[in-house]
Design brief:
With 84 residues, the chain is mostly beta strands. The chain is built from no helices and 5 strands.
Length: 84
């Protein structure tokens, strides 16, 4: 699958900084996002596709550029939505 403008993907938020005791007030969460720009539209592998996103959060939206793809769902990355 190739990313393209207008596609729905998931963005993984970073969460809050890790405290000294190893906990976080808020952990990273999957959020719906819309692709607004594809860095290299000729790329054939998601790992090579940094995209710009409009991320939809329960309390508002934010925009993020050059977001890397990650199958591991690392904070600050995007991935394809799971099929359910």
């Amino acid at each position: 699958m190739n990313a393209s403008v207008g596609r729905i993907v998931h963005y993984v938020s970073h969460g809050t900084p890790v405290r000294a005791d190893g906990t976080q007030a808020f952990t990273g969460q999957c959020r719906a996002a819309i692709v607004t720009e594809v860095g290299d539209p000729e790329a054939t592998e998601p790992e090579l596709m940094d995209v710009s996103l409009a991320v939809l959060n329960p309390t508002g939206m934010f925009f993020n550029q050059d977001v890397p793809y990650s199958e591991d769902r690392a904070g600050g990355s995007w991935h394809w939505p799971e099929r359910v």
